[in-house]
Amino acid sequence: MPHMRERSEAWLHRSERVIPGGAQTFSKSPRSFVQGVAPNFLARARGAYAWDVDGSRYLDYIMGLGAVILGHADPEVLEAVRAQMEKGISFSLPHPIEVEVAERLVRLIPCAEMVRFAKNGSDVTSAAVRLARAFTGREKIACCGYHGWQDWYIGATERHRGVPDAVRRLTLPFPYNDLDALSRLFREHRGEIAAVIMEPVMFDPPSPGYLHDVHELCHRHGALLIFDEVVTGCRIALGGAQAYFGVTPDLACFGKALANGFPLAALVGRADLMRLFAEEVFFSTTHGGETASLAACQATLTKLEREEGIARLWHLGAHLKDGVNRLLTERQLTDVITCVGMPPFTALRFRGRDHEEQLALRSLFQQEALARGILTLGFHMLSLAHTESDIQWTLTQYAEIFDLIADAVRRGDVTARLKGPPIRPIFRQA
Ligand SMILES: Cc1ncc(COP(=O)(O)O)c(C=O)c1O
Question: Is 122's C-beta closer than 6 angstroms to any atom of ligand 1?
Answer without folding.
Answer: yes
